[in-house]
Amino acid sequence: MALSGLFLIFFLLQHLTINFTSVFSPETFNELSHFMGTNFVVQAILQPVLAFGVFFHLAMGIRLELMNRKARPVKYAYSKPGANSSWVSRNMIITGITVLLFLALHFYDFWIPELKIKYVDGLMDDTTRYYPELLHKFENPVRVGLYVLSFVFLALHLLHGFQSAFQSMGARHKKYTPIIEKLGTAYAVLVPFGFIVIAIYHFVAH
Ligand code: HEM
């Protein structure tokens, strides 16, 4: 679970970097999107690995949640959940499923049309289409609202997920753990915020 989580954390950073170029250089965004969309290694190796990573993280997350519930069928007679765990750590399944629902919408918006344009319409060589396609998606205020709300839940998921992944891997050390926690909080705030900036910028600016 931690390993697939760290892999997705790395994916999000590259995904943010590529999509953020759409805010300041449409040409760069088109070039990078075309490279990612047509490069053999990306398409034939990295994308299937990513798809497996997303699916594995989801399946493992649900399995661990069910095991935890089975392990503690009867709620503690007296429990002050806030006393020994944070809301985000107790509700990873809620924030995780919200991100999954976002991915379903996101695949419908971007990935599936991308596959159709490339492999059905055969527009593999059109290198200028990516930016106008992106702008078109962010004209709809409901979609922008749903994306922004999803990115807030993504931030909540990462707030616990980032540092917890390192803990699960046994990377606990009184010198490094505080650094990992600070890095995790910075990542959990800045990366989703970056995605929010992209969505709102394209909605407001165009
Ligand atoms: C404003 C924010 C975002 C934009 C503009 C954006 C844009 C895109 C685009 C254009 C594609 C199609 C790429 C292709 O297939 O060639 C894509 C695919 C994808 N996106 Fe996003 N994305 C955003 C946020 C996210 C977030 C937050 C996640 C994860 C939680 C995510 C996960 C994915 C995945 C897994 C794919 C399919 C794999 C891939 O093609 O890279 N995206 N996105």
- Outline type: globular
- Using DSSP, what is the number of strands? 0
Strand content: under 5%
Summing up helix and strand content along with how strands pair, one would put the structural category as mainly alpha
Instruction: Compute the number of structural domains.
Output: 1
Task: Please mark out the parts with pLDDT under 50 across 5 or more consecutive residues, or reply none.
Answer: none
Bound small-molecule species: protoporphyrin IX containing FE
Main beta sheet, described? none
The mean pLDDT is: 90
**Integer-rounded radius of gyration:** 19 Å
Order of helices and strands: HHHHHHHHH
Q: Work out the helix count.
A: 9
> What helical percentage do the residues reach?
over 70%
Distance between the terminal alpha carbons, to the nearest Å? Answer: 40 Å
List the helices and strands and how they pair.
Layout: H1 2-24, H2 26-38, H3 40-71, H4 81-84, H5 87-90, H6 92-119, H7 130-137, H8 141-168, H9 177-205
The site of protoporphyrin IX containing FE (HEM) has 20 residues, from helix 1, helix 2, helix 3, helix 6 and helix 8.
